[in-house]
Amino acid sequence: MISQRAEKAERPAxxxxxxxxxxxxxxxxxxxxxxxxxxLSIDYGQRHHFELEAARQVARSMEACGHVILDVDLAQLxxxxxxxxxxxxxxxxxxxxxxxxxxxxxxxxxTVFLSLALAYAETIAAADIFVGVNAVxxxxxxxxxxxxxxxxxxxxxLATKASxxxxxxxxxxxxxxxMTKAEIxxxxxELGVDYGMTHTCYDPNDEGISCGRxxxxxxxxxxxAEAGLRDPLVYQSK
Amino acid sequence: MISQRAEKAERPAxxxxxxxxxxxxxxxxxxxxxxxxxxLSIDYGQRHHFELEAARQVARSMEACGHVILDVDLAQLxxxxxxxxxxxxxxxxxxxxxxxxxxxxxxxxxTVFLSLALAYAETIAAADIFVGVNAVxxxxxxxxxxxxxxxxxxxxxLATKASxxxxxxxxxxxxxxxMTKAEIxxxxxELGVDYGMTHTCYDPNDEGISCGRxxxxxxxxxxxAEAGLRDPLVYQSK
Lengths: 238, 238
Prior knowledge:
- 2 copies of one chain form a homodimer.
- By secondary structure, chain A is of the alpha/beta class.
- The first copy, chain A, has a single domain (4-227), classed as HUPs (Rossmann fold), CATH 3.40.50.
- The first copy, chain A, is built from 9 helices and 5 strands; from the N terminus they run H-E-H-E-H-E-H-H-E-H-H-E-H-H.
- The first copy, chain A, has helices at 4-7, 21-32, 50-61, 94-97, 109-123, 146-159, 161-164, 181-190, 215-227; strands spanning 11-16, 35-43, 66-71, 128-130, 171-173.
- Chain A has a 5-stranded parallel beta sheet, with helices on both faces.
- In chain A, strand 1 (11-16), helix 2 and strand 2 form a beta-alpha-beta unit.
- The radius of gyration of chain A is 17 Å and the shape is globular.
- At the A-B interface, strand 3, helix 5, helix 6 and helix 7 of A face strand 3, helix 5, helix 6 and helix 7 of B.
């Protein structure tokens, strides 16, 4: 018997899945919009692997048709607190967080991730790529801006066999780009995302328990509070 | 005593260095144009490693200030004769080679490579990236076209910290893009490139001896013949 999903002949889409709250919500949106999810996670030399473990769980819960975890050792290039040994900032005030580009910025990360998503999309003949970038909470990151996504889409439509052979146009979907964290959490909750599976913290302890104090934890906790929803994660600090 | 190179205060440039003839020539052009070369080679799951060994030798001979060899296992994504087990075509006629996109095409390869070059450039504060793409001999490859390079440059200028902070514009240099193979070989020879160090073959034997019959070998041999120069490489077939 052909399964219900196969009968619907869903179109394939590559979803960049970090294991965080935003990308889990993005994957749920792709499913809701009728796409078959092919998840792509990048092991880029993060200081910990809890995020990738979360990505595995999220991919399973979304019934992803494929999940590739690709090693790309960006730590070899250096330049970020997320891959190098320098300290992740904690307890920063909102005003401080919203100023400039933090040390947790990874050089050209979204350009690299989207280009790998494009390579994956080309091999599975997908014309759609989903990425959970957000310009509201990450206003300091150059590669989270709408103009960056538009430029990548333009590039994608010149970069592949499909673009030369006149097949369907490649679309980069960034459904969260204009949403606040609270809006993202509300939508994800409606779509059934289990945020207890996701990992957000830049600097968890050895058991994977979130610090609650880095920029990422603070944004997440504030988002849940503003959404009036309970964050299922446990934190080291109140 | 400060070396002559340091006195000149050369600007850094990232050069994508495969170990092939084109990228070696490109590196020599970057040096000639007064750049300090930071070479980037990608170990993307090629079927052999002779090319990367060649890249190491070429980087040394060009007095590169840095050389990163980055692992990115594109073979995990599949879709190419250069990373998968299917056969590399041999003895194809010119007319056949110039038609369509060959099986040796690697999905989105230049998009991935340029995005990694951009990440490297950002960490060393370089605003210049050199890539040896060529639209004449590789007319079938979407990501060797001038419009692709222009689109990537546009993206690069939206993707990085430097672009947000209003620093110097990022330039993608593709100096070979309109040159024939013979012209490339003549120029490289003038600039002192030792083509005996380079590796071109898609399907060498276990000792690294080039087959002489794949598309890449054929293009190279024809290029040397047209340039009226001797190819220092030894081939399995006459």
